[in-house]
Design a protein that fits this description.
The complex is a heterodimer of chains A (488) and B (191). By secondary structure, chain A is mainly α. Chain A contains 22 helices and two strands. Helices cover 67% and strands 0% of the residues of chain B. Chain B is built from six helices and no strands. In chain B, helix 5 crosses helix 6. Classes of the chains: A mainly alpha (488), B mainly alpha (191).
C-alpha cells in the first residue's frame, strides 16, 4: 500500500493539492472549506488513491496555512489561527518570521502525527468517551475556553473579562437557534445568520493593525524586514527542548477536536492558556516566545485529526471541512461508522496511511508556502499596508459575496483599533464571539432537559472534572508561586 | 494595585499608541498614569454606551420559546448588557478615583488627537469611500481609486503608485475571479 501511495502518479497530484491548500488557506477570505471544495471536482478525475490523498492532504494543510498570514500580517486565515497573531506576529516583527513559521510548521506536523496516531490507536474508545459529553459538559467546556481569556491576558483580568462579555454580546446577533427570534438584526437580512467570524477577525486583527501603523510615519517609511535565514534542521533542537509542551498541546488538541462542535480554535486557545499557566515565564507570553508559538500550532493541527474520530467512528462531521471529506469518502464507496473498523480493513488502513504521510509532506510543502509568502515582507511597508486593506476587503467580500461582511470588517477594524489604543486585549473578545453560541445553546438546552434545575451542571462526574480543571488552571500559578516563596 | 504586566499584543500596541496598560500605583510618572486613565475611561464609556444599547434594544427581542424552562432568547443579551453597563461604570469610577487619588489633571479630548492622527482618519475615510463606491462603480475602478488615494497618502511617488495599483488590481482579479471563480462587484452604474 505504501509503495502505491509513494508512486509519482499519486505523490505529485497529492503534493500539488497540498500546495493549493496552503495557497488558499493563506489567502485572507479564502477558507479551508473552499480549498477542499475546489479540490473535490479535480479529485474525481484521478485514480481513487490519488483522489483520496488529495482530499485528505488539503484538509490537513489549511489550518497551518492560516497561520502564515497571521504571523506575517496579523490576519488569521482561519479562526484556529488567531492564536498565531500573538507570539508568531511578535517574532515576525523582530525579523524572525521564518523562524516562527518554521517552528509552527514542525509543531503542526508533529501535532498532526500525534493526532493521527491517537486516531489510529484509540479512535473507538475516544469516540465513546466523547459521546458521554452532554449539554452540561459542553457548557463547561465553553466556559473553560472563555476562562482562557483571563488566562492568556493575565494581569488585565477585569478588562479581559469585559472584552469577553462584549464578544459574547456580539455573538447573540442574528436569529436565535432555539426560538428563531431575531436579535439585533434590525431587519438586515445579511445579519440573520449572525456575524461571520472571518470578516470580524480580519477587521479586529488586520484592519486595526493597518490603522495603527499608518498613524506613525516611522512605521510607513520603515525599511522592509530582513527576515533571518533559518533552516528547519536548526529549529529541531527548539522543538526537542519543548517536547513536553508539544506533546501536551497535541493530546489536548486531539481530545478537544474529537468533541463535535468544539474544534481547532478552542483547542488552540486551550493549549495556549495551558502552556502559559504551566510555563516558568508566563509573563513573556505574547512577546514572542517559543512556547507561545508551539502550543496553539501543535493543538490546532492535532484537532483536525481529532475531528476525524467522531467522523470515522460515527459518521458525525465536526466541521464543514470534515463534512465535505465524508461526502467524498461516500462517493468512493467508503461508508463511515462503527462497521468501518470491522469490515473496511483496507480502506481504513489506506486513510490512516494517507493521513500519516500527509503530515510528513506538510513539512516541504508548508516550507515552500512560508518562503513564498515571506517575499511580501521584502516590499516597502506602505505597499504592504495598502495591499492588506484591499486584500482584506476582497477577502471579506469573497466569503459570502456580501458587502455587508465588508462593512462588518470595517466596523470591527475600528473597534479593534480603539480597544488596542485603550490597552484592552482583543483576544478575549474573539473567544467570546467564537464560544458564545456554544455556551448559550448548551446552557439553554441543558436547562430545558433538567426542567430548569442547575443541579446537573455541577453534579455529573464529567462536569465536575471540567470544573476541577478550571479551578486548577486558575490556582496553579498562585499556588506554585506560594510554594516557591516558602522554599526560599 | 498589584496587577502585573500582561503579555498580549495589546501591550505593545497600546504602548506604541501612547497608552499605558499599567494602573497608576505609587510614584508613576504623571504622563504614564494619565495614559492609563484615558484608556480606562474611554473603554468604560464605550462599554456603558454598548451596554445601554444592548439593554434598550433587547426589549424588541420576542421572548418566545418552545420549551417551559428555556430562559429565552433575551436572557444572554440582557446578562451581557448589564455586565457591560456595570463593568463600564466601574472602569470609569476606577479611573476617576485614581485621578483624584494621584491629583492628576487631564483633558479627555487630548487622546483623540494623540491616538487618531490625521493620516489614520484619512485612511478610514478612504476605506469608507471605497466601500461606498464598490457596488456602484465595481471592483476595478473603485480599487484603482482607493489604492491611488491611499498610496499617495502613505507617501508613495506617482510611479510607485501607478505600478502598485496596476499590479495589485490585476493580481487580485486573476486570483479571485479567474482562479477561484469569485465574482467581484461589477458596478451597477455600468450594468
Amino acid at each position: 500500500m505504501i509503495s502505491e501511495l509513494l508512486h509519482p502518479s499519486v505523490l505529485i497530484p497529492w503534493c500539488l493539492a497540498m500546495l493549493l491548500g496552503i495557497f488558499v488557506g493563506a489567502t485572507p477570505g479564502l477558507t479551508a472549506t473552499m480549498a477542499v471544495a475546489l479540490i473535490v471536482p479535480l479529485s474525481f478525475h484521478m485514480p481513487e488513491t490519488a483522489g483520496l490523498a488529495m482530499i485528505i492532504g488539503v484538509s490537513f494543510t489549511a489550518i497551518f496555512a492560516g497561520d502564515i498570514p497571521a504571523t506575517w500580517l496579523r490576519i488569521p486565515g482561519t479562526p484556529a489561527s488567531a492564536a498565531a497573531t500573538l507570539d508568531g506576529f511578535q517574532l515576525a516583527q523582530r525579523g524572525r518570521g521564518n523562524y516562527a513559521l518554521g517552528l509552527d510548521l514542525l509543531c503542526s506536523a508533529i501535532g498532526g502525527l500525534i493526532g493521527v496516531g491517537m486516531l489510529i490507536l484509540i479512535a473507538p474508545s475516544l469516540a465513546r468517551f466523547a459521546l458521554r459529553f452532554g449539554d452540561y459538559e459542553y457548557f463547561w467546556l465553553g466556559i473553560f475556553g472563555l476562562s482562557m481569556s483571563a488566562m492568556v491576558t493575565m494581569g488585565q483580568t477585569s478588562k479581559a473579562l469585559l472584552a469577553a462579555t462584549l464578544g459574547l454580546f456580539i455573538s447573540t446577533v442574528g436569529q436565535d437557534v432555539v426560538s428563531n427570534a431575531q436579535r439585533y438584526t434590525f431587519g438586515v437580512v445579511d445579519a440573520y445568520n449572525g456575524l461571520n467570524f472571518i470578516p470580524v477577525m480580519i477587521g479586529l486583527f488586520g484592519v486595526a493593525e493597518v490603522l495603527r501603523n499608518v498613524g506613525r510615519s516611522a512605521e510607513l517609511n520603515r525599511s522592509p524586514i530582513n527576515a533571518e535565514r533559518v533552516s528547519l534542521m536548526g529549529i529541531l533542537p527548539t522543538v526537542w527542548k519543548h517536547k513536553l509542551c508539544v506533546l501536551r498541546s497535541s493530546v489536548l488538541g486531539t481530545v478537544i477536536g474529537a468533541l463535535p462542535g468544539a474544534g481547532a480554535d478552542v483547542a488552540a486557545w486551550g493549549a495556549y492558556g495551558l502552556a502559559k499557566s504551566t510555563s516558568k515565564d508566563p509573563d513573556a507570553f505574547g512577546t514572542g516566545t517559543d512556547e507561545g508559538v508551539i502550543a496553539p500550532t501543535s493543538a490546532n493541527n492535532a484537532a483536525v485529526a481529532g475531528a476525524w474520530i467522531p467522523a470515522l467512528v460515527f459518521g458525525v462531521p465536526g466541521d464543514a471541512v470534515t463534512a465535505i471529506v465524508l461526502g467524498v469518502l461516500l462517493a468512493y464507496g467508503i461508508k463511515t461508522g462503527p462497521f468501518l473498523f470491522e469490515t473496511g480493513g483496507d480502506q481504513i488502513r489506506s486513510i490512516f496511511a494517507i493521513a500519516l504521510i500527509t503530515q510528513i509532506l506538510l513539512i516541504p510543502c508548508g516550507w515552500l508556502g512560508v518562503k513564498g509568502f515571506g517575499l511580501i515582507q521584502r516590499l516597502p511597508r506602505r505597499m504592504v499596508l495598502a495591499g492588506v486593506l484591499v486584500f482584506s476587503t476582497v477577502g471579506a467580500y469573497a466569503i459570502n459575496h456580501s458587502l455587508f461582511d465588508v462593512w462588518v470588517m470595517l466596523a470591527f477594524g475600528v473597534v479593534g483599533f480603539f480597544l488596542e489604543a485603550c490597552a484592552v486585549p482583543v483576544v478575549p473578545m474573539v473567544l467570546g464571539l467564537i464560544l458564545g453560541p456554544l455556551v448559550e445553546e448548551k446552557l439553554r438546552s441543558g436547562l430545558i432537559a433538567s426542567s430548569g434545575s442547575l443541579e446537573p451542571f455541577y453534579t455529573r462526574p464529567l462536569s465536575l472534572t471540567i470544573i476541577g480543571l478550571l479551578i486548577a488552571a486558575f490556582l496553579a500559578r498562585p499556588l506554585l508561586r506560594w510554594l516557591l516563596s516558602r522554599k526560599t | 494595585m498589584t496587577e502585573q504586566s500582561a503579555s498580549t499584543s495589546a501591550e505593545s500596541s497600546a504602548t506604541a499608541a501612547g497608552i499605558s496598560k499599567q494602573p497608576p500605583s505609587g510614584p508613576l510618572p504623571d504622563a504614564e498614569a494619565i495614559r492609563w486613565l484615558r484608556g480606562t475611561t474611554a473603554f468604560g464609556l464605550f462599554l456603558i454606551a454598548i451596554g445601554l444599547f444592548a439593554l434598550f434594544c433587547a426589549r424588541d427581542i420576542r421572548q418566545q420559546s418552545l420549551a417551559v424552562h428555556d430562559p429565552g432568547p433575551r436572557a444572554l443579551p440582557l446578562i451581557c448588557g448589564w455586565l457591560m453597563l456595570v463593568g463600564g461604570i466601574v472602569q470609569v469610577a476606577t479611573a476617576l478615583f485614581r485621578s483624584r487619588q494621584h491629583r492628576l489633571r487631564w483633558k479627555f479630548e487630548q487622546p483623540l488627537r494623540e491616538l487618531c492622527p490625521s493620516r489614520t482618519i484619512w485612511t478610514l475615510m478612504a476605506l469608507v469611500l471605497y466601500l461606498l463606491l464598490l457596488p456602484w462603480v465595481g471592483y476595478s475602478l473603485a480599487t484603482v481609486l482607493f489604492l491611488g488615494i491611499t498610496l499617495k497618502l502613505f507617501g508613495s511617488g506617482w510611479g510607485e503608485t501607478v505600478v502598485v495599483t496596476v499590479v495589485l488590481v490585476s493580481l487580485i482579479s486573476i486570483l479571485f475571479e479567474r482562479l477561484f471563480q469569485v465574482t467581484l462587484p461589477q458596478g451597477s452604474l455600468f450594468f
